Amino acid sequence: MNGSRRQVLGLGACLAAAAALAPGLRLIELAQARSPEEAASKLQRWGLLIDTAKCGECDDCVTACHEENGVKGHGRPATDSQWIRKVNLKDKRTGFAQTLPVMCQHCEEAPCIDVCPTGASMRRADGIVLVDKHICIGCRYCVMACPFGARQFVHEKTTGQKADVPRGQGTVEACTLCVHRVDRGEEPACVSACQRDGGKAMTFGDLKDPDSAIARRLKSERSTALRADLALDPGVRYQGLS
Amino acid sequence: MRAARAAALVLALAAFAAAVAAGADALAGRVAEPVVKIDRPGSCVEPTAVMRRDHMKLLLQQRDRTLRLGIRDTRHSLKNCVECHADASTGSVLGKDGFCESCHRYASVSIDCFECHSPERQARVAERK
């Protein structure tokens, strides 16, 4: 059997295999940015992996988040919105200090959705937890229910909002995982800032795609959820927490 | 006698009609007509009659599709409305002659959209920084 005959046979086998699959059916879903007309899919679940060992003193993620989402304070720390905050932990006995960013953990079993009386707290098919401010009545049950303090109430009139990030007085808001960027195929602003200027401590990706960097790392390295005892299955996971 | 009475009646009716017309004119003068200023001429996303009657239906449908399903086609999005209809001088759909506000003020219908959404064209927001 010469080479060319073998090639022809191989090509024939490939064509037969391709013809056996129904058109439009893929054995493996293609990992690519959605078109704007396409709905978010449950074939994906967006998540973050934060390595606290690499997270340093900077707060570039916080600055980038608030810049991207037009979150502006009024110089009143008690009531100003924080979509993401740096939390400092210190072991009192040993003096070992850690710092880590905490934002909405985008839980699979989100308590904020359980308690919402209007259905404004919601979870998109791809796992991003959002507030539908059109039907939020500002009751703040979710603010109390969230164990991470992620939900924020907008106390004051807002102006100068970003077109992609509406914000309004009397409604609750939180990290959206930069849903407007994710829908364009980009990563959240905090992750971009951390990769560019910070300690490269944050990784963003599709938890359901076994070939994504985040899924590969989660499979091979130890990581934990904040308040793992609550079994909320958050989309944000941490490494190096002690 | 009868002719005189009829003439008087006709005169009175004419005077009344004139007064009503004058009143209507005065009323029209008092209420500012909406300013429909189109800075970017061309066709809207739907025929004008449909947009006048149903723009809120389209917007409500679009908002739920975008927020809940993540479908981000821009055809009926509020962002698309603002990009096209924002005033050239103020960069906004609000304000006295703003495309949205002038009509809504005339019809006495409050607009809640811009309590949260930006009423300004994005290029204008970026310029201000």
From the alpha-carbon coordinates, what is the Rg of chain B to the nearest angstrom? 23 Å
Q: What's the total number of strands of chain B?
A: 0
Strand % of chain A is 15-25%
State mean pLDDT of chain B (0 to 100 scale).
83
Runs of chain B in which pLDDT lies below 50 for 5 or more consecutive residues are: none
Please work out how many helical segments of chain A DSSP would assign: 7
Order of helices and strands of chain A: HEHEEHEEHEEHHEHE
Mean pLDDT of chain A: 90
Our measurement of the CA-to-CA distance between the termini of chain B, rounded to an integer number of angstroms, reads 83 Å
Shape of chain B: elongated
- Strand arrangement within the widest β-sheet of chain A reads 8-1-9
Distance N terminus to C terminus of chain A?
A: 64 Å
Q: Label the structural class of chain B.
A: mainly alpha
From N to C, what is the helix and strand string of chain B? HHHHHH
Helix content of chain B: 55-70%
| Class based on secondary structure composition and strand pairing of chain A | alpha+beta
Outline of chain A: globular
Task: Give an account of the 3D structure.
The complex is a heterodimer of chains A (242) and B (129). The mean pLDDT of chain A is 90. Chain A has 242 residues and is an alpha+beta fold. Chain A has helices spanning 3-20, 60-68, 111-115, 141-145, 179-182, 189-196, 213-220, and strands at residues 46-51, 84-90, 97-103, 121-123, 129-131, 152-153, 172-173, 202-206, 236-239. Chain B is mostly helical. The chains are: A alpha+beta (242), B mainly alpha (129). Chains A and B meet through loops of A and helix 2 of B.
